[in-house]
Design a protein that fits this description.
Blueprint (H helix, E strand, L loop, with lengths): L7 H9 L7 E5 H4 L8 E2 L9 E2 L3 E4 L8 E7 L13 E5 L11 E4 L3 E4 L2 E4 L11 E2 L10 E3 L7 H9 L4 E5 L3 E6 L4 E2 L10 E2 L2 H9 L5 E4 L7 H10 L5 E5 L10 H8 L2 E5 L3 E2 L5 E6 L5 E7 L3 H19 L10 E4 L11 E9 L2 E4 L8 H5 L3 E5 L11 E6 L7
Parallel strand pairs: 5-6, 13-16, 13-17, 14-15, 17-21, 19-23
Antiparallel strand pairs: 1-12, 2-11, 3-10, 4-6, 4-7, 5-9, 8-9, 18-20, 20-21, 22-26, 23-24, 23-25, 25-26
Helix pairs in contact: 4-7, 5-6
Length: 406
């Protein structure tokens, strides 16, 4: 009996339930970018480690804010002053420099007039007096959790980890991804494509999508509609954590992915989801003879369907395997620049373009139309039986260029 299509969120939850995070490894900072922390990051040092000046000016004792003062030393970044501040005695100080002993305020240089070694107040003293001081521990203190487990290491997180005292980080092993696009109609050379063929673009597209996250990718296609050829491709993917197929997951006479997977020892978890495009999605799992689980994603062959389902399923799966705290893409609200017709009996994901005029859906929504996909930067999420929407109405969208993790 054919399984009824299941809702998107249920399908995503069932997929991610198969995705145990991969083993932990420690990598240097050059290899950590884009990876996900496997453990909370606790600061090994305090930042700032002592009180620093936030501005260029003169450091004076607390309460001594009217002057005049005698300049008796200088504190520069990386070169603290050994001379203390005292009543009537000021220390020239630069941004980022250590506050001298006895100093409790920094008066901005533009609020002062200097004549030789004597300065007088001509502007406004700081209020409160510590206004221009970065206190010890202002950013974080030793022992503070500065990043949670599952946080993705971007440029700012990398800088924070280094500032917290780390040269190496614990992250999950890179997922190994095998990409198999199948179909007798696929031409491996797009410059030598016969009329009855189409260029094999899905494999490259899916590999590129996966490469937006750190992982190891093995392209294994295109593969003809032949059980023996599919068996060889699957055997070549024996070490992959994720096997992604494109095409052959539907119900036609030449759709051989299901029998090929079953012969390989994979167990179908679910098949068909209640979305458009992308209904004939298949999820399976295979327990390796030597231990460890492989997850199989059988994506539709139509390029837009393949892209949309990879966005909604492959990328979340790779994030989950990598230990991400947030794996599933999130929508943000946007205003329509043009009206939308009523929705249908399936949840729809419409290609669209979001700019300073708002969000507008492409007129061409056929699941084989790559041109409208390539010029889209969002997917519009339309619920089942959605009523017509007018220009200016708010709709949920996924940002394609960020993998939906806005």
């Amino acid at each position: 009996m054919m399984q009824a299509p299941i809702p998107l969120e249920e399908a995503q939850a069932r997929l991610l339930a198969l995705a145990a995070p991969l083993p932990v490894e420690r990598v240097d900072m050059g290899s950590a970018l884009g990876r996900y922390l496997a453990e909370p990051l606790l600061a090994r040092r305090t930042q700032p480690a002592c009180d620093l000046s936030a501005m260029d000016g003169y450091a004076v004792p607390p309460g001594d804010l009217t002057g005049p003062w005698q300049v008796v030393g200088e504190s520069a970044a990386g070169h603290p002053s050994p001379t203390p501040a005292a009543p009537g005695r000021a220390i020239r100080i630069s941004t980022g420099a250590v506050m001298p002993p006895g100093a409790g305020a920094v008066i901005l240089q533009e609020d002062l007039r200097r004549d030789s070694d004597r300065i007088t107040l001509i502007g406004t003293a700081p209020s409160p007096e510590h206004k221009h001081i970065r206190r010890e521990g202002m950013d974080f203190s030793a022992g503070d959790e500065v990043l949670a487990a599952g946080a993705r290491i971007g440029p700012a997180q990398l800088a924070l980890a280094i500032a917290a005292g780390y040269n190496h980080l614990g992250v999950r092993r890179l997922p190994r991804v095998a990409v198999i696009d199948s179909g007798d109609e696929l031409a491996s050379d797009c410059e030598a494509c016969a009329l009855h063929q189409i260029p094999a673009s899905n494999g490259a597209m899916l590999a590129a999508l996966a490469a937006s996250l750190p992982c190891r990718i093995s392209p294994l296609g295109p593969v003809p509609d032949d059980l023996d050829a599919l068996a060889r491709a699957l055997d070549a993917a024996a070490d992959a954590d994720v096997v992604v197929t494109s095409g052959g997951a539907s119900v036609g006479d030449h759709d051989l992915i299901r029998p090929a997977l079953e012969a390989w020892g994979a167990e179908i978890d679910f098949w068909r989801i209640a979305i458009k495009p992308g209904k004939p999605l298949l999820v399976a799992r295979r327990e390796r003879p030597g231990g460890g689980r492989q997850v199989v994603l059988g994506l539709p062959g139509n390029p837009v369907s393949s892209h949309v389902t990879a966005f909604l399923f492959l990328l979340p799966l790779l994030r989950a395997l990598s230990g991400a705290s947030l794996a599933v893409p999130r929508t943000i609200p946007a205003r329509l620049a043009a009206p939308l017709p009523a929705g249908g009996r399936r949840r729809e994901f419409l290609r669209g373009r979001w700019d300073d005029q708002g969000e507008a859906a492409h007129r061409q929504q056929d699941s084989g139309a790559l041109s409208s996909l390539a010029t889209s930067n969002v997917l519009i999420d339309r619920p089942i039986d959605a009523p017509p929407a007018a220009a200016g109405d708010e709709v949920p969208i996924y940002l394609l260029e960020t993998g939906g993790m806005a």
